[in-house]
Amino acid sequence: MDTTLPGRPRLPMRARLATTVGGAAATVSRLAGKGDGSVIGGVISLRLEPDLLSLLAAGRQVVLVTGTNGKTTTTRLITAALSVLGQPIASNVYGANMEAGLTSALSRAPDAPLAVLETDEKYIPPVIKATQPKVVVLLNLSRDQMDRAAEIWMLARRWREALAAAPDCRVVANADDPLVAWAASAASTVTWVAAGQRWREDSWCCPNCGAHLLREGDEWTCRECGNRRPPVSWVLSDGNVVDPAGQSQPLGLALPGRANASNAVIALAVAEAFGVGVDSALAKMRGVTSVAGRYTQVQRRGTEIRLLLAKNPAGWLEALDVMVPAPVPVLLAVNAQTPDGRDTSWLWDVDYRRLRGRPVLVGGERRLDLAVRLEADDVAFRLVDSIDDAVDAAHSPRLEVLANYTAFQQYRAVVGRTE
Amino acid sequence: MRLVWIYPDLLSTYGDRGNLLVLERRARLRGLPVEVVEVNSDQRVPLDGDIYLMGGGEDLPQVLATRRLQADGGLHEAVRQGAVLFAVCAGYQMLGTEFGGADGQPLPGLGLLDISSGRGERRGVGEILADVDPALGVPRLTGFENHQGVTRLGGDVKPLARVVTGVGNGDGTEGAHSGRVLGTYLHGPALVRNPGLADLLLTWAAGQQLPPLPPQAEELALRLRDERLAAVPAQ
To answer: Is residue A92 part of a domain?
Structure first.
């Protein structure tokens, strides 16, 4: 195993001062009850030393994880897999994934030779430049919070340019997402993973030339320019991972759903780049049961509630797949605050017809938008004002909850943080 | 009633499917038989649709879709024969004589509306309210806009509405219409939040006044509409 990790160079004086001051600010913010403090700490540190991210990353083996969905969970799974190496790992476990959050994660773990960093998909080009990562993970690209996010074809083009300028970095990419594959193909070394693609509404056309793609099963081919799905070395197949040697075994994750199985196979491909084998990596990954409150099960007034977070149409589609089937009731909740995206139009991109015939409750600040959407799909539902209202209305031993970002945080604040 | 959705593979973002679903539902509730046709960019545009829908899209898909619709010619022929055309955002800009390409350079549009669009200084993002051309008999529009386009109206079109709050075309007007072709920057989706606009299109296509919907079939849509109208401080 490649466990000989380089020593960390000593930080210059100004950088050391910056991390100390930033760390103090983070502590104050945390004690004041304002989140985990990583953003404010990072912002202050960066003001004192603008090159801090680059200085802090120097000499570490860095993994950057990006994509529209699954960043937080995949980061957690990779961190679990790499724990086999027995070395400290720096990671932004709370999902603060822009420059300040990354800086903060690295300065909290000054001696960690490894870093696994979830990175916002819009900001990854400068982060690649600053951290010179060993591995970049590209999960997927789909429409998300479009009132503030960049358009995804443009994002793919920026990824492509950033990877072309980073010849020493290995990319682990989902070959089943044509936009991701097009972006990754600019890199010098790519490990292709057949991680699947449930949501296809953003990739019917060739990212290279724009022609309508021919799609048969998992294969995709452009008849105009010849762009096609690259040959894969890792495969997700019915809950099993097939490794490059052709060995198949069940993933056996505690985390539910196809999307997490997909994240896990990608994590295994990353682990291999660090010399960590499938068996030992899986043993650690199976121990991950909840990620930043997602998939958490809590008891509330005698009802067992499971909380799922999804923020965009692709995420909702995957989450609806994960839900325990009828007759267990479902609470869907939508807000449209700034972190959620203020445009609720995306609700119309999701197909809800599979919810017909099961008890559906609708909450959140924008519940009327969702109500009108469900009505159009002939899904019967009841409006609720709070999670307790939903628990009472559900009148069931179990309740599945799917909420977007701030709606999820609000419910979590009520039912209690369990980690 | 034949509803034709143009190029969902290129022109579908921001819940554009919602406009199709609302037209379908409101036609069915009135007992009109409805057929929905989704036409991808590698297929011919049928000539026998009653209402054609075009949605939003990113810069590159917008350019590609324009090129293909121009080469196909089916949409032009259908509009010549009197079909209804409703286009949103990128789709709206494409209908004009000119729009801004991926790098802002002017590109020829479909020429189905006498408008021309370019790129503005800043992106217009947020809730929008606009009062509709009184000739159309549709109440105040509510929507969500998200575009950097500035659209100038020529002499052969009328503004769809006057902006109360928001950006719209950039000169105080929003959208444009001429004959049975109507374009707007509004998402939300537009026909979800503005059932009156959906009924206008259905009335044009049916060629006659439509019976009102039973109140319970509209109750939620009207509550949503009221909530959205009240959520924006009118200036």
So the answer is: yes
Same domain, A172 and A119: yes
Q: What is the CATH number assigned to the segment(s) B2-231?
A: 3.40.50.880
For residues A63 and A78, is the Cβ–Cβ distance under 8 A? yes
Angstrom distances, CA of residue A108 to CA of A56, A58, A142, B93 = 10, 15, 32, 50
CB contact under 8 A, A369 and B224: yes
Encoding tokens for residue A54?
């680059």
Tokens of A330: 């479902």
**Residue A417 confidence (pLDDT):** 57
Chain B contact for A365, CB < 8 A? no
Element holding A309 (H helix, E strand): strand A303-309
What residues in B contact A143, CB-CB < 8 Å?
13-14
ipTM above 0.85, yes or no: yes
Chain A CA closest to residue B63: A210
3-state secondary structure of A19: helix
> Is B59 touching A (CB cutoff 8 A)?
yes
pLDDT band at A3 (very low <50, low <70, confident <90, very high): very low
Cβ pair B9:A349 closer than 8 A: no
B174, β-bridge pairs: B161
Find out whether B199 and B26 touch, Cβ atoms under 8 Å: yes
Residue of B nearest to A213 (CA): B42
What's the sign of the alpha-carbon dihedral B35, B41, B44, B45?
Answer: positive
* Bond into B139 cis (ω within 30): no
Q: Do B146 and A146 touch (CB under 8 A)?
A: yes
Phi, psi of A383 (to 5 degrees): -80, 140
Q: Any catalytic annotation for residue B147?
A: no
Question: Is A253 a member of any domain?
Answer: yes
